[in-house]
Every structure is written in structure tokens, then in C-alpha cells.
Amino acid sequence: MAMTIRQAAPINGAAVLPDVLVAQQLRQDSDDDAALIGVYRATALQWVEKRARVSMQRRAWLARFDGFSTTVRLPIGPVVSVATVTYDNPAASSVDGAGLWRLAGEVLSLAFSTQWPAIIDPAGATIVEFVAGTVDATTEYPHLCAAALMLIQHLYDGGNLNTPPAAVTMLCDVDRVPVIG
Q: What is the domain extent for residue 128?
């Protein structure tokens, strides 16, 4: 099942990784490159979020799915709440799916004794608006903050996102569990 996700509000990079922390990583004494470093910080945080599937700051997200299945894993966590689940019905109107689902962790599943409605054009027909993220990433996910800082350093030194340092990807993958089968 195809899915797209976007943040409803951009990440506030300075709230997640304060300027003083980034300056220490880059061993900077001046603000000459402040705008450039702000872009690198936002880029690094978004890259880490995508790789680790963790929202580094609590904020709203919007996910579009091409239909229903018995369970849907929301693509980023930790999920705090689901605001709405809507879908486009055959009459081409948007319908609130309240009562059709329940949330357990990052998994949205079909509520007991219900079934998902039929939809005619499944492309992006199911929309889930939810809130996900940490309150304090430096405390809850220090390894992801370290990965973002290393990636900022890598970008500042002229590196690119095609070849991130191995330590960055390793830190992002710390919480991943390999599944065989």
C-alpha cells in the first residue's frame, strides 16, 4: 500500500538542537555562517527523522494512504494521538472515519466488529492526521541528536547526503530491529 507523509509544521531546529550545541560541534566562535548552519541543521534533523522514523519534535503530521488494510503502521513516531482518519467515499466526498479505528503505539487498526468502507479511487484516499514526536529529544533520543550533530558537521565540511558518515547511519539504526520472513 503506497503512502506519503508530510509534516504539518516545520521542525524548529533551534529548539531541538540549540545554537550553542551546534556551535560546540562545529567549534565556532562567530555567527558568520548562522544562516547556512540553520539550513544544515534543518536538513540534518529531517534526514535523521526519515532514517530513524522518529519525530525529533512534537508536532502535527499528515499521512495519506492508498486505501485500508486491517492494520496501518504510522510512518513516524512516537505517536501521541490521532486527530482524524478521513477517507474519500464513492460519492467523492470526504468522510470522517471516527469509530472505525483504534490506536496501539504507532499501529492504527480496525476497531472490533467494523470493516473499512469501500473506496473507488484509492490513490491518497485515506488521510490520517496525527501528532508525533518527543518533548525533549536530547534526553529521549540522545543518539539521534548526536547523529544530527555529526551530519551537520559532515555537511558543513562539504559532505553530502549521498555519503553520510557510517557513524551517523549506525546511530540512526540503533533502535531498529531486523525482521526476517
A: 59-132
Cα separations (Å) of 109 from 61, 91, 101, 112, 171?
A: 18, 25, 5, 9, 30
Q: pLDDT per residue over 105-134, tens digit each? A: 888 887 765 666 665 556 667 888 999 999
Q: Is residue 3 part of a domain?
A: no
Cell triple for 54: 522518529
67, 119: one domain: yes
> What does the pLDDT look like over 20-29, one tens digit per residue?
999 999 998 7
**How far is it, in rounded angstroms, from Cα 19 to Cα 2?**
37
> Based on the domain organization, do 128 and 142 belong to the same domain?
no
β pairing state of 94-96 and 101-104: unpaired
Asked if 88 and 121 touch (Cβ cutoff 8 Å), the reply is: yes
